[in-house]
Specification:
- The complex is a heterodimer of chains A (about 425) and B (about 425).
- Chain A is of the alpha/beta class and about 425 residues long.
- Chain A folds into two domains: about 270 residues, Rossmann fold (3-Layer(aba) Sandwich), CATH 3.40.50; about 110 residues, formyl-coa transferase, domain 3 (2-Layer Sandwich).
- In chain A, the strands form three sheets. Chain A has a six-stranded parallel β-sheet.
- In chain A, helix 1 packs across helix 7.
- The longest helix of chain A is centred in the middle third of the chain and has 24 residues.
- Chain A is elongated and about 90 Å long.
- The two termini of chain A are about 40 Å apart.
- Chain B is an alpha/beta fold and about 425 residues long.
- Chain B folds into two domains: about 260 residues, Rossmann fold (3-Layer(aba) Sandwich); about 90 residues, 2-Layer Sandwich (formyl-coa transferase, domain 3), CATH 3.30.1540.10.
- In chain B, the strands form three sheets. A six-stranded parallel β-sheet of chain B has the order 3-2-1-4-5-6, sandwiched between helices.
- The longest helix of chain B is centred in the middle third of the chain and has 20 residues.
- Chain B starts with 11 loop residues before the first strand and ends in a 5-residue tail after the last helix.
- The interface between A and B is large, with 153 and 156 residues.
- Strand 6 of chain A pairs antiparallel with strand 12 of chain B.
Chain lengths: ~425, ~425
């Protein structure tokens, strides 16, 4: 689906000033793609996140960070030095016509500059200040340094990932930062909704630790209710390799199976497929056939409840697992995924980024968007918005901005500065 | 103190969802003031009601901590949507509702007449938010999916973990808890703003595939633009070193069978200032003064050895000691906390009251996650525990669906309220 810049948007009456660091960029991207006018306010020289890769054609350049571009679609950019008195004055002037300010500074920093919630209220009484930090604005850890891995660790989510014999796994892709940003976006729109009704602004406070914590799934409740510890389990949640559950290698990658659980066709259907292709080996006969056909959670529980026969049955299960391994190893991952799904088996491809970019479902639905970068004479493929709204579509409305690309448009065009003033501020390091 | 109205006070939400990705959306709405009715059925009980952890020594549908944590504050009505009368009552609920949320499959949504087109006939300005696994259209629209295979399909499993291990994902149905539901919530709130301005509702579709994949943007672009397929890289980052989880003193006897519990602290150094601070905090050991470790690039070259050396230092301390020492020195560090830590060992979460304890008639007094964002002037409230299955049949039937005692009795007998 092509982007539709002329359709109404849910936030087109909203102006957002983004003075945030890395942790807040996705929040304002969500707001910008929903139609808000978002100005990315970067320090002179560019936002620090521009130094993070991957880079366009591996060219390390502040104007070529794919990481930064993914987080700054639909935004404009101005440069401004918050450490400079003239810079701060410019910010104050911009706040006069702003609805939302998003920031990720250590608690107290903006207050010290007279630009915290109270300071901003003096300029614009109904301002919404969205403050996103590692641990929130108050509490014993409020000043802790919190890159993404610290959020992931302290939220309890990192504890759950990986194999028991390895260190706990970090979730790929700055998930703690993203979670904080997503929560902040929801909180900001809710604060706007409240302000629409009452005229009252407020501060939206996000602690990355709290933002992510619910993603512990059941670890918290398991301790709370039963004083039992849920930990990382590698391949199986049961500690035993159950045939039909877990990753299986293919000729060209992996699939992940969850066969034998409710919600999909039973193991007997998987066995039938293997038999059809002549690859069931001795599972077609007893004593293996009736065991293979009946693999399910209740079945496994019943095995574990009879310790005398458990060992023998578990070794039979191990054999089923090996035959299944060989079956899947003979096929390509897309074949297993698509054929398995057509048989209503709960099987998922372990998608690589390539699989995702080529995924027929995503492409049929127009998930990816083409964004033109004139300075590169290139059109690049971007992930699209996470949702589709029928009346007020989310869209990638402009390509990510160059550093200070809109300085003139904003400072001269909107604030009324002359070009000479702009130059002077630039030379003085205020912008 | 005057009682402040919450942002969503007076809003009515019909929750036709289950598991996590749907219910969490409406639970947050309830925390911020909305009235939320969950439509359940004894014929098709929410799977989470049947999965552990269960309150100790309790059984039944009302004691799962997994279900309860996503359903605080809601009313539960049981409606059998396979009956004509059940469907009719569902439409009465839709008439009452401002927002409807569903993560049922497209087939089920269509079978039960809950498509946007049908809802609009009943409530023209309804905001209907759907969270199908892969969308309502397309070649894979009817593919089966639950969180367990969503993680591999959406690319997380391939990218997470150590390279020498097979792809097993994050140990949880990760996208179900924040990414999908809170993306959805953001869209719903945006739609609510638009409706207040214009009177128009709309249809929101968040395909869980799309929404999850949106959290992997850099890897997608690295392939789309550079042709590179990123692979899992453990806990390391290209622009930081050290960056990972380091083994600390185990917690003696804390394990399930009395074994020691392994403990870890995450440490991350992004620049030379932090590196020097780390060295000082460790007592400037001789190895750390070697030029091999002086810069980020050189640390990356010798990262295995770097990690081993740091592990020797952390191995003599508890993770809390490591975290406190390093944070005081200006080095990012954080305990890799577990379920016990977040509830009992974290002074910050405790002081902030993040976990809220509620008394449930069957499950007892248990902890619930608070909201993931806070509004300082209109703070959200977890007003009541998760509902028992069908607990509010009578209340919903009388107060919302406009039925009297006789009609209710009939519906019970006919197994419509079921």
């Amino acid at each position: 689906m092509p982007d539709e810049p002329d359709r109404p948007s849910a936030l087109d009456d909203i102006r957002v000033l983004d003075i945030s660091g890395e942790m807040g960029l996705y929040c304002t991207k969500l707001l910008a793609d929903l139609g808000a006018d978002v100005t990315q306010i970067e320090p002179p020289g560019g936002h620090p996140a521009r130094r993070i890769g991957p880079f366009y054609h591996d060219e390390t350049d502040a104007e070529k960070s794919l990481y930064f571009w993914n987080l700054t679609t639909s935004k404009r950019s101005i440069t401004l030095n918050l450490e400079d008195g003239d810079g701060r004055d410019l910010l104050r002037r911009l706040v006069r016509t702003a609805d939302v300010v998003v920031e990720t500074f250590p608690p107290g920093y903006l207050d010290g500059l007279g630009l915290g919630y109270e300071g901003l209220c003096r300029i614009k009484p109904d301002i919404i200040l969205t403050s996103i930090t590692g641990f929130g604005q108050w509490g014993p850890h409020a000043h802790y340094l919190a890159p993404d891995i610290v959020g992931a660790a302290m939220s309890g989510v990192m504890w759950m990932a990986g194999f028991p014999e390895d260190p706990p796994n970090l979730l790929y892709g700055q998930q703690a930062y993203l979670s904080a940003s997503i929560q902040a976006a929801a909180g900001t729109v809710m604060a706007l909704y409240h302000r629409d009704l009452t005229g009252e602004g407020q501060q939206v406070e996000v602690s990355m630790q709290e933002a992510l914590s619910i993603s512990q799934e059941t670890a918290m409740q398991t301790w709370d209710m039963r004083k039992e510890m849920r930990g990382r389990q590698g391949v199986g949640r049961l500690g035993v390799r159950v045939p039909g559950i877990g990753p299986y290698e293919c000729t060209d990658g992996w699939v992940y199976c969850f066969v034998g659980t409710p919600g999909g066709a039973p193991w007997s259907d998987l066995l039938a497929w293997m038999i059809e292709e002549g690859k069931a080996e001795d599972l077609e006969q007893e004593p293996h056939k009736s065991m293979a056909e009946n693999i399910s959670m209740p079945f496994l529980t019943s095995i574990m409840l009879e310790p005398e026969t458990a060992a023998e049955k578990l070794s039979k299960l191990a054999h089923v697992h090996e035959v299944l391994e060989r079956f899947i190893a003979s096929k390509s991952k897309w074949d297993v995924y698509q054929e398995g799904q057509s048989r209503r088996l709960l099987i998922g491809i372990v998608s690589t980024p390539e699989d995702l970019v080529r995924n027929p479902q995503l492409n049929f639905r127009g998930y990816y968007r083409e964004v033109h970068h004139p300075e590169l004479a290139d059109t690049l493929r971007y992930p699209g918005p996470p949702y589709v709204l029928s009346e007020t579509p989310a869209a990638l409305r402009r390509r990510p901005p160059l550093i200070g690309e809109h300085n003139e448009e904003v400072y001269c065009g909107e604030l009324g500065l002359t070009h000479q003033e702009l130059e002077a501020l630039d030379r003085a390091g205020a912008i | 103190m005057t009682e402040r109205k919450l942002p969503l006070s007076g809003l009515h939400v019909a929750d036709f969802s289950w598991f996590a990705a749907g219910p969490i959306v409406t639970e947050v709405m309830g925390i911020y003031g909305a009235e939320v009715v969950r439509v359940e059925s004894e014929a098709r009980v929410d799977g989470l009601r049947t999965i552990m952890p269960f309150a100790k020594d309790k059984t039944g549908y009302n004691v799962s901590g997994w279900f309860n944590n996503y359903n605080a504050g809601k009313l539960s009505v049981t409606l059998n949507l396979n009956t004509e009368k059940g469907k009719e009552l569902a439409y009465r609920l839709v008439r009452w509702a401002d927002v409807l949320v569903s993560n049922f499959t497209p087939r089920v949504v269509e079978r039960w007449g809950l498509t946007y087109e049908e809802l609009r006939k009943v409530k023209p300005d309804i905001i209907a938010a759907y969270e199908p696994m892969q969308g309502f259209e397309g070649p894979h629209r009817d593919f089966l999916g639950f969180g367990a295979i969503l993680t591999p399909i959406t690319g997380f499993a391939h990218l997470t973990g150590f390279p020498h291990q097979p792809p097993v994902g994050m140990g949880t149905n990760y996208p179900d808890y924040v990414i999908n539901p809170i993306h959805t919530l953001t869209a719903v709130l945006a739609a609510l703003r638009y409706r207040r301005k214009t009177g128009k509702g709309q249809r929101i579709e968040l395909a869980q595939l799309d929404s999850s994949v949106s959290a992997l943007g850099p890897a997608l672009m690295d392939y789309a633009v550079n042709g590179r397929v990123q692979n899992r890289a453990g806990n390391r980052l290209p622009h930081a070193s050290p960056h990972g989880a380091f083994p600390c003193l185990p917690l003696e006897g804390a394990g399930f069978l009395g074994e020691d519990e392994d403990r870890w602290c995450a440490i991350a150094v992004f620049d030379d200032t932090q590196w020097q601070a780390l060295c000082r905090a460790m007592g400037n050991p001789a190895w750390s003064q070697d030029p091999r470790f002086a810069t980020l690039l050189s640390r990356k070259k010798h990262e295995d050895e770097l990690e081993q050396q740091i592990a020797e230092w952390t191995g003599t301390k508890t993770p809390q000691e490591v975290m406190e020492t390093l944070q005081a020195a200006g080095v990012p560090a954080g305990v890799v906390q577990n379920g016990r830590d977040v509830l009992e060992g974290d002074p910050h979460l405790k002081e902030r009251g993040y976990y809220v304890y509620l008394d449930h008639p069957e499950a007892g007094r248990t902890a619930y996650d608070g909201p993931g964002f806070r509004l300082t002037k209109t703070p959200g409230v977890l007003r009541s525990p998760a509902p028992c299955l069908g607990e509010h049949n009578e209340k919903v039937c009388k107060e919302i669906l406009g039925l009297d005692d006789e009609e209710i009795a009939e519906l019970l007998i006919e197994q419509v309220l079921y």
